[in-house]
């Protein structure tokens, strides 16, 4: 089982990238589980036709010890297993609590042993890399961290902070920082700016997702590009991203 954490600044297109990656991997014959690690709980909606599923934290609060896997794991496009950690009411409690609770509950219910995913993708808000938001990097969870960024200043700032956080955790056998995904926004000198951050953080830009109206067209249908517009050029970008990640993580197989 390959476990991958996708980090990035809020609003950078991280969930769109992760969902399309999940869809692309599923079309290659992999059993994928995507775990949304953001209190907004909207990571998986385009894999589920726009459906907002119950969160793990919400179901723990509602069902207590009666909770079962089918209360928190839902099958989406391509058989992708969708989970949303959830979080507390805004302004009340720690936003990372949902992630910690979700991970503990999935382990308690033997989710990975029962569903046997080939690949687990954690979609993690990366504005702050502490507490629960750092949990996917910890030993036993993700093996690799990839960072989504554009050439915009705040996105690059967040990417640098995330990369440094992974580096600081390296001595504890936490996840490995394995590359940057450029989600194009067409800002001036974007390729050069992102390449510079990759160089400064001792990594590389592993893929570029072009700026495309097809992404929004697919999302208007509550679908990934892979599902709604499989022949679109940007769908090819997501497939190339899937291939590259598999080559880095050692997960290539004949599907």
List the defining traits of the structure above.
8-stranded mixed beta sheet, 255 residues, 8 strands, 18% strand, 9 helices, alpha/beta
SSE inventory with pairings:
Layout: E1 2-8, H1 14-27, E2 32-37, H2 56-63, E3 74-75, E4 81-84, H3 97-108, H4 111-115, E5 119-125, E6 144-149, H5 153-169, E7 176-183, H6 190-200, E8 205-209, H7 213-220, H8 225-228, H9 233-249
Parallel strand pairs: 1-5, 1-6, 2-4, 2-5, 6-7, 7-8
Antiparallel strand pairs: 3-4
Walk me through the structure.
This protein has 255 residues and is α/β, with parallel strands linked by helices. The protein has helices spanning 14-27, 56-63, 97-108, 111-115, 153-169, 190-200, 213-220, 225-228, 233-249, and strands at residues 2-8, 32-37, 74-75, 81-84, 119-125, 144-149, 176-183, 205-209. Strands 3-4-2-5-1-6-7-8 form an 8-stranded mixed β-sheet, sandwiched between helices.
